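note to self — DONT lose this again. spent like an hour looking for the file last time. sequence + predicted structure for the chain T wanted, 449 res
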Amino acid sequence: MATLVQSGKWIQKGLEIIIAAISWMVFLFLDFLEVFMCIFYRLLDEFLEGKAYSSCYCMELMEEKEKTGDCHHVAQVEVDGESELSETLHRRRNFFRGLLGSLGISLVPKGWRNGESFLQMRNGTRWSDCGCDSCVEWMKNADDPKLHVVVQEPQTERASWVDSKEREAENVIFLHGFLSSSSFWTETVFPNLSESAKQNCRLFSVDLLGFGRSPKPRDCLYTLKDHLEMIEYSVIGPYQLNSFHLVAHSMGCIIALALAAKHSKSVKSITLIAPPYFSSLREDASMVALERLAAKRLWPPLLFGSSFMSWYEHLGRCVCFIICRNHKMWESLLKFITRRGNLHFTFIDLTRHTHHSAWHTMHNVICGGAKLADKYLETLRMAKVKINVIQGTRDQVVPIECSINIQKQVQEAEIDKIANANHGSVVLGREKDFTRDLERIWSSVADLH
């Protein structure tokens, strides 16, 4: 028996070594492809648009190293500056980029730029982004851009929570996760509200900046500050929200924490679903978040996809070019295959962004927000804001310890672990139960005020 156990351990160890070796070779190949596509896009952007729309971050890093000999200078300046860029944009390691940089070899010959544009893009979009009517609809109000917000007003008759004390309607702001939109809430929570909640709650489901039907400006770096200002300008200000609840999923949780900390006197409760929270204690908190959420691993496939899109700026742009720019074709094809007139909203939402908006939001919000998360939680703890966390026990995107660590930081926070639920099914597939949980949270806070 002992021999069999020992043999099993050796087999397992051998498999781990083989998988690690294959993983190393795959990502080494991707490192090479990334450098090649860096050169390709650099030349093609300048050829088609007259000049490179913006230097990629691997290019900026190499140029800065040529000037100062310090590869971390750019990241430090940007993080401490007003732009609030995450250091993960510059510190993503790449074997071949590092090799070329150490040899002082430039990826693109100097003096290449000719300043002439050979392609006039429709509606001012990039050649690699979709220019269909639905994707550029926000440009009709380019002079005064606001987020797309779905508002559900309370029904005329007021009852239950507010009858006795004549309270005002409970305002609730919903923030979606990465590669999603307001549909995540309007298709799940809104249809399953009880009659009492319909009569007493005013709901705001937001398309975050760069996603869904909201603006996707090219000159924006999609920092936390950018997201907060747009929510304030599009929702809190126009609707004069003096008090509100927050409900957020995944990436939206970071934005919700920042918004709640900024308006701690107005927030009644904050409900975080699968929050990607990592402690801010370490100086490289942003890099820790990137390593944990998008580790360079081949398995599971979901993690490989995250690492591919998070570590490789130019390869990710290739994916967005193929999928997002041609989303109309893919939607038509899928409708034909499935024989369905309407596709599931999660598939539609998956393509409603640009590479620029998704790339910067991933790094500047999800990763960059890690270095500020503890500060936000401490502000909410001091303000005695009710914090509720909900996460599935089989979440392969956000580690379950993220929720546990929030409770360690704020002992009053309530954690609800949903058995056998993953990152999406913590809401999808249990919409009624999830909505009832939200209503209990809102009503319990209303009873205290």
